[in-house]
Hints:
2 domains, mainly beta, four-stranded antiparallel sheet, rod-shaped, Immunoglobulin-like
Amino acid sequence: MISKVGRILLAASLLSVSYLPNAQAHAQLVDANPKANARLQSLPERVRLEFDGNLITIGDSQANVILVKDSKGNQIDLGDSVVGGARLTVILKSQQVVGRISVAYRVVSEDGHPIEGDYYFTVLGSVAASVPTKITITCIKSKKKLKITGVNPKCSSGWKKL
């Protein structure tokens, strides 16, 4: 038989174990490519998110999804989010897109809880380097002619453009 003190200690230990927090925590986003607030010259081929724990899949259902939209709200991913351990990836449509791109995700962590979040990055677009066009003008002064070539050529004082 357990003494009264023994029963109290047993009850206290069982009570303390029942109040231990769950060791599994909800998944947290630890890395993204492209990163939040990134400024890119062109749209990447894919968006990749990495979490601090494995994601679970539930049959064929889309429990883990990344949705990528352009600044007009058009979906620009192919809708084929793929889970690989703690990583979720989606391929983007091959198109010219500029502006603010939103990334929204929903994943199911190992503890079975769905987690949602979002962020954005910006596609600036490639700016073609504009090369100034050089032109040639002819200036005249007292039957003398002078050709000047440059981006914005001007005749000197006393000379007139022909």
